[in-house]
Amino acid sequence: MCEACPAVDAESHTDVLIVGAGPSGLMAAYWMARYGIRARIVDKRPTKVFTGHADGLRMRTLELFDSMGIQHRVDHEAQSAVDVNFWVPGEKGQLMRQGPITPGQAHHSPFHHMLLSQARIEDFILDSIREHSDIEVERGVIAESFHYDETPGEDPNAYPITVQLRRILDDPQEKGQGSQASHSTKPSGFDQSNVPPEDHNNLAEQNQKAHVPNETVRAKYIIGCDGAHSWTRGQLNIPFEGESTEHVWGVIDTIPITDFPDIRRLCTVTSPHGTILVIPREKQLVRLYVPVQIMDEENGRFDRSKITPEAIKARVQAILAPYKFDYQILDWWTAYQIGRRIAPSFSRWNRAFIAGDAVHTHSPKVGLGMNMSMQDGFNIGWKVALVVSGAADPCILQTYHEERHRLAELLLEFDKLWAGMFTQENKPAARGAQGKTESMMQVVEQFQDFADGIKAFYGESPLVCKQSGGVNLTTCNLIPGERVPPVKLRMQAEGNNVWTTRLFESNGQFKLVVLAGDVREVAQKQRLETLSAFLSRSEPPNSSLLTRYSSIRGRSKSLVDVLTVHSAPWPDTEFFHFPEALRPLDPVFGWSYGKIWCDDSCSWDRDCDGRAYEKWGVDRKRGAVFIVRPDQYIGWVGEFEDIEKATKYFDGFLKTSKGE
Amino acid sequence: MCEACPAVDAESHTDVLIVGAGPSGLMAAYWMARYGIRARIVDKRPTKVFTGHADGLRMRTLELFDSMGIQHRVDHEAQSAVDVNFWVPGEKGQLMRQGPITPGQAHHSPFHHMLLSQARIEDFILDSIREHSDIEVERGVIAESFHYDETPGEDPNAYPITVQLRRILDDPQEKGQGSQASHSTKPSGFDQSNVPPEDHNNLAEQNQKAHVPNETVRAKYIIGCDGAHSWTRGQLNIPFEGESTEHVWGVIDTIPITDFPDIRRLCTVTSPHGTILVIPREKQLVRLYVPVQIMDEENGRFDRSKITPEAIKARVQAILAPYKFDYQILDWWTAYQIGRRIAPSFSRWNRAFIAGDAVHTHSPKVGLGMNMSMQDGFNIGWKVALVVSGAADPCILQTYHEERHRLAELLLEFDKLWAGMFTQENKPAARGAQGKTESMMQVVEQFQDFADGIKAFYGESPLVCKQSGGVNLTTCNLIPGERVPPVKLRMQAEGNNVWTTRLFESNGQFKLVVLAGDVREVAQKQRLETLSAFLSRSEPPNSSLLTRYSSIRGRSKSLVDVLTVHSAPWPDTEFFHFPEALRPLDPVFGWSYGKIWCDDSCSWDRDCDGRAYEKWGVDRKRGAVFIVRPDQYIGWVGEFEDIEKATKYFDGFLKTSKGE
User: Fold this and answer.
1) Could you tell me if A498 lies within 8 Å of chain B, comparing CB atoms?
2) Is B289 assigned a catalytic role?
3) Architecture, CATH, for domain B13-452
4) pLDDT of B234-278, one tens digit each?
5) Looking at chain A, which residue has its C-alpha nearest residue B256?
6) Which residues form a coiled coil (chains A, B) (predicted)?
7) CATH of domain A10-452
């Protein structure tokens, strides 16, 4: 809930305070909106970003966007980049293309690697937050002091966190900066844009002088998504381990004028002058990552003042030669020194959490940073929201660090190898063109499952039960702790198709997915009836999985949504043939047509191929049951007869509804 | 350009005045926005519609939406309905499903029949208009008097049309109605919603009394999209020929509570009590078309006061029995008497045009009315805009009536047969269940190409040259006067795919599409070079097809955009191997990467199958050339060597740029 701006020093309460409204903070705020949580999100920047910053979107992120209902907008505006090319010096030193190479993962998702300005991505998430709540980002607000009261422990009614907020919007200097940041594709825009994020910290000090009223906010939980120089991380006394490297890079977003053949294709170009990364973007833009540190060889120091768009351009021209390169339109540019750092802990007291760049920084060249940050925010967001709502035990909050820290380590490992490829010696004689490409390919392939998000590696926890039941599930591809391999299903009642990424909407509910098998067979139908009877039994009180747990107030009647996917041919089945517990009647909204699905092909949609059970590694006759967490990861898998274990899974962290 | 609301009686000038901001008026306004035309669009309703009205979207409409850049939004929100079912009484009188039947046309387009509230469709077009212009719909504005001055004839600088506008927004009574119309899914909303469109005419009279300043608008062109009771049609003295029938229908949009199995499937249900049409919609809504005239058998008259939602519900219950039917949520309802009328002429003086319901009314049951109306507006919009911009001769305006009147006739023919199916005797004994279904199917199939828009039947005119050149094009499926069969192509420079429906964007330009054939072959490459040389030759002045015609001021450099689609394998070809005239260099935006396309398959997208030449019926080696009009219909087809005929085609109606 967005509270009014106080005219004088004021104290207020909020359940969740999110510091930082970049991609990870917005993803966390998305969950507050979906669960109807009283939350605030503040950002010290007076405006959102309009150009530049991150741009790479991996397939897993796009799957999550689909579950949030915004992927169609990304797809409409973003640039696709499925294939990769590698340009290396040939025997006579001339640049040669090696590729295109299509990653095998291109077939594992309905979505492919895309590129789009961070500004637009933030717009889409913001629109979704507004659609579901009154939460608005409060910009030009700096968090200044932090106090944590350990006394109340896990008391759900306590507000142990105290933060002082200062608004800087009224400061004339700040206002000027805000208006400069308005959207512009003219080169004059870059003066403002190339202020590195860390310099914004100075703004807080400058504004101490201004007579702006403070606000004291008391919160139950805080989520710090405030970037590499995170204020929150500092307040929590969490170190940021690692180091800066000597490598300095320039980044330019331009509309290039060049005869280089692959300027509109994702590629690397290696020459004796260094390696650049070429990233085609929306609206004819191209981003280039360019090594510039060699310019400072004379004194061995990194002098930022020497790095200009012109200097970056000159380096691009040297590397791309004999191809020509120039531009008239410069949309954004920046320079950065690679720092590779990680926070050893992502949380404190189970009350304060940090996410995104605040817990991991690295070179941006793997096109993964924004994805990891958004997935951090996505991971912690629903857990905090669920606990605040009173539906879940705070024990689930510990899984945030457990799940995301290991991935941050992998990220840095990947970055170290990949970024190294760009800075090592690139003489053609060194390894040979083919060798260079091969080693780059090897690194990409080694980390691809992780990078694309096909594997999450989430370990055993209250939210992930790794012990799947039954001998019939030994070849199952539904793996607790991993995502659901996307498939397209037909709705039984309508015959229309939808990808599971959209079907399993990120609406806050757990999905109990009943793979009903071939319901034409009497024995299987009987197994399904037995399972349904278990799901809907009404005594003893609260024993039904469907009514046992709290509802999400004002959002959904049950925290556990049951979806059925059968494997009989679609024309041979009817919605009303399924047990009523699987397709309940609502007195106002009628029968739940959206709950019965079919794994059958469809003549007018090639993506709907009737191979869901096959892709999921589940027996078409016997079926199985699995649980999808609110963030689209699998929590548990079992046979029909293991259904009591599903109750056990939920009982591990969900509070029962006390018969309400 | 939207002009400020005058405080006193005022006179103003606009190039185009559009009366009526429903679907057809908005489509016409879309073109004003895209061409940058000074235009105004007024509507007598104080607010836009929020519920009810039309909802059927045929595939051709969706293809046009894709060319406008809004189809992704429709696709995200709308309900699909590809299959059709027919329920008829079986031998024992019980209802039996016959189907589902998948129309063959389902494979002819990337899009399928969809259903979505007219309110949302209007939103999407409005957003697009705003994206490209400052044009805003002026609501609560009634056109009251009309004068046409025949003196200036075709003088492009004259404003021969004078219309008096009166604003009714300030009237308290109107205000009340406006606020009632705010979005609500509560049943109470229907009191307002079921005011039939014609009753709105009374509002004008009521508001004569109010002291609201009038405005006199002088316009070059007027487009009347003001519905069945069109004021514009009346001013033009164009009759509305046809008649009302005795058949009265009720329409209800509800969230049904029913055990009828196909309530979420497009179907007809025939019983001795009549035939209803079931239309599944977005957000769990279902629309039902229900015959209600039988209730008034006693006095043989249609008494509107007797038609209530309850009466309609009772009839549905009778027809669906023994299935149960009820609802708690009624989103909208109305009742109407079928009138089947057509205007014998769609225009006067080549200055005034009428479109949509103003020129054809019929029963809504074919799900085609809004589609036809939007396509009317789409057809007249770009033609008027192009003439007003000074780029084209007014002769093209005559093609509006020629192209659309024949289709309106077909529409009424279709409706007569189809609606008749719902009102004829439905006793099981009459023809037998199978016979009923067969005759319904026959009508659907007979008109399907027309209804879905796969065939437009546009005849020979300055804009459609039916004489295609060369013996190699006898089997060509690119037929002047018809749409381009949609295919997915790969962009040569990027390798990414796009449907031609999106590629041929409705941006105001004509597309000259060069099907370059297999450019690996020397002879074919030579033919292409010769063609390109013709396209780019610079003397005598203005002889190049690329620079010969006016630009669209502030929108695009050339009125004719050249796109190349070759048939060589994508990996064996390079963007820079094509003649420069086909991929020109812009000093600011660089090379035109988006102009060279390839008909090749792609491993990660099944829709991109490398069969464009095959589907278009064009020889893969020799290729062809064709012209796509701004509204996505084919204007001319020929061989490379016929290219002078393309110039002749354009010279027939485009003005040359006088070397500007």
Assistant:
1) no
2) yes
3) 3-Layer(bba) Sandwich (3.50)
4) 999 999 999 887 778 899 999 999 999 999 999 999 998 889 999
5) A590
6) none
7) 3.50.50.60
pLDDT for A299: 60
- Cα distance between residue B86 and residue B68, in whole Å: 35
pLDDT tens, residue by residue, A346-372 = 999 999 999 999 999 998 877 899 999
Burial class of residue B569 (count of CB atoms within 10 Å of its CB; 0-12, 13-18, 19+): middle
* Residue among B75, B100, B495 minimizing CB distance to A265: B495
Q: Please indicate whether residue B103 is annotated as part of the active site.
A: no
On whether any CB of chain B is under 8 Å from the CB of A96, the answer is: no
Q: How far apart are CA A53 and CA A135, in angstroms?
A: 24
- CA pair distance A524, A577, nearest whole angstrom: 13
Which positions 225-264 of B are in contact with A (Cβ < 8 Å)? 255-259, 261, 263-264
Quote the Cα angle for A480-A462-A345, to 5°.
100
Between the alpha carbon of residue A160 and those of residues A15, A147, A236, B63, B482, the distances in Å are: 10, 8, 14, 57, 70
Chain-centroid distance of CA A564 in Å reads 27
Closest Cα in chain A, distance from residue B139 (Å) = 26
Q: Supply the residues of A annotated as catalytic.
A: 55, 281, 289, 364
Q: Where are the domains of chain B?
A: 13-452, 471-651
* Long-range residue pairs from B291-298, CB within 8 A, at least 24 positions apart, any chain: B291/B247, B291/B248, B291/B249, B291/B250, B291/B315, B291/B422, B291/B423, B292/B248, B292/B249, B292/B250, B292/B335, B293/B246, B293/B247, B293/B248, B293/B249, B296/B248
Query: What pLDDT is stored for residue A260 in this prediction?
Result: 98
Return the H-helix or E-strand segment holding B177: helix B172-180
- CB of A415 closer than 8 Å to CB of A360: no
Question: For residue B141, what is the enclosing H or E element?
Answer: strand B141-148
Q: What is the ipTM of this complex?
A: 0.90
Per the listing, tokens 């963030």 go with A631
Chain B partners within 8 Å of A265 (Cβ): 493-495
B13-452 shares its CATH topology with B471-651 = no
| Residue percentage of chain B with pLDDT more than 90 | 70
B55 labelled catalytic:
yes
Model confidence band, residue A10 (pLDDT cutoffs 50, 70, 90): confident
Give the distance from residue A129's alpha carbon to the nearest chain B alpha carbon, in angstroms.
18
Contact at CB, A589 and B329, closer than 8 angstroms: yes
Size of interface A-B (CB pairs under 8 A): 118
Cβ–Cβ below 8 Å for B590 and A73: no
At A526, is the secondary structure helix, strand, or coil?
Answer: helix
In A105-124, the residues whose Cβ lies within 8 Å of chain B are 106-107, 112
Identify the active-site residue in B256, B291, B364, B579: B364
Please give the Cα distance from A179 to A189 (Å, whole number): 11
With beta carbons under 8 A apart, name residues in chain A contacting B83. Answer: 495
Higher pLDDT, A271 or A367: A271
Q: Which residues of B touch A100 (CB under 8 A)?
A: 495, 571
Residue A537 pLDDT: 81
Confidence tier at B181 by pLDDT (50, 70, 90): very low
Three-point CA angle B122, B126, B132, nearest 5°:
150
- pLDDT value of position B8: 55
Digit-coded pLDDT (tens) for A541-572: 556 787 788 888 888 878 999 999 999 999 99
Q: B129 near B190, Cβ under 8 Å?
A: no
In words, the CATH class of domain A471-651 is alpha beta
**pLDDT band, very low/low/confident/very high, at B367 (cuts 50, 70, 90):** confident
Task: Kindly report the pTM of this predicted structure.
Answer: 0.91
B496 to A80: CB separation less than 8 angstroms, yes or no: yes
Chain A CB within 8 Å of residue B73 CB: yes
> What chain A residue is nearest to B281 in terms of C-alpha separation?
A494
